[in-house]
Design a protein that fits this description.
Radius of gyration: 28 Å
Strand content: 5-15%
Distance between the termini: 47 Å
Shape: elongated
Helix content: 40-55%
Number of strands: 12
Largest sheet: 6 strands, mixed
Length: 434
Amino acid sequence: SGSSAFPGWVAVVPTLGAVAMIACGSGAARLGTAPITASRLFVFVGDISYSLYLWHWPVIVLWLAYHGGKIGYLDGPAIVVLSVLLSWLTKILVEDKVRRAKIVVRSPAVSLATACAVIVPAVLASLFIAGEPGPWTGKLGPDHPGVRALAQQSSNQQANNNIPVSSLVPPVAEAHNDITLLNKNGCEVGYTKSAPTPCTVYAPAHPKLTVALVGDSHASMWSNALITIAKQHDWKLVGETHAKCRWTSTMMVLKGKPYTACHDWGQAVLNQMLTSIKPDVVIVSERAASGTVSHPTPDAVGRTLVGQGMVPYFHTLLQHGIKVVAIHETPNLGFDVPDCLAGRKGSVEKCSTPIDEALQQHKTSIDAAKAAMGDTLPVVNVNDLLCTSTECPPEVGGVIAYRDSNHLSLSITRSLEPYFAKRLLATGAFSGSA
């Protein structure tokens, strides 16, 4: 899939394969591999193997760029055939022609000159690449206002779909790695774990409030914005997040089985809130993308059950004097945004999603919890800063808004900070801290 590190443990597979070939490769062995490896097909592949090594990766990368990051069932064999064809052609038309040329073979001086002719341009190209500008610094300038571009427009303003993809920040090639702190620093509990890992991400000497951020990876994506707000208002900020796990008393399912690790984590987090962390406010955010034991399909019914299961936890916190604030689910565009923008047909217009599809309005777990709790559960919603009245674009104000299909990029949360802070404080849950 491309997600496994290489070299890494997966490198053991071809390494052991090579060891097995060597161990069994004797031509004298009656049951060895020599009859196979000596066949015309295997000799042909061996003959072009170095060219194949050079060609296969560029072909894969170009194919991915052409199709927007996807390889289908027919694409794989086509890539193999094309790589073999290119390898064979360059082997007989370039490699063999050069290394077997009479002038090269007969004269050591010419051989050395030929080698230098290849090496010198490679060195110069390397120096040129080294002198290119470094990675994007992460700073937003006046040409990339982010959500301010929508905040200053009328509610029915349409998105500017003519923005060139090349002008967006972060650069499309870096957008997948534009990740917020708790999503990448090890504080977020893995999806198979059940033990909470509270993580203090900011702690002034004399905090006015202790604020806990609880939820799944969608809670984690608000961590940088909340750190900025915590610094401004002298809050202690503690993160309690779990991958693929919603903080609900409803038993969810994962891969068709009861998600007990998540359920146990949720109960343990509630206990920590009451006994050790003792926050003044708990901020909850999540994306209910899992079904439940009673309703395994992750649809509107499942999301409602997840939201209803949040209510007992919220009531328990309120009974102990701990206020609760929820962050409404953010858009889900339904496809990998950076891959779409990087594709052959990628554009802001073609990588946008109608707002009803992206928001799945009135069908979310936070809405279900709000319906059950009313005014006792304030909800912060910033989706009007991410979408127009008709669609949710992949970028806002020149800033790529998503690092995949649904997680906000670090850059867009940075541009959201002042608006998010204003709405968060307006809930009244942080009274005395503003």
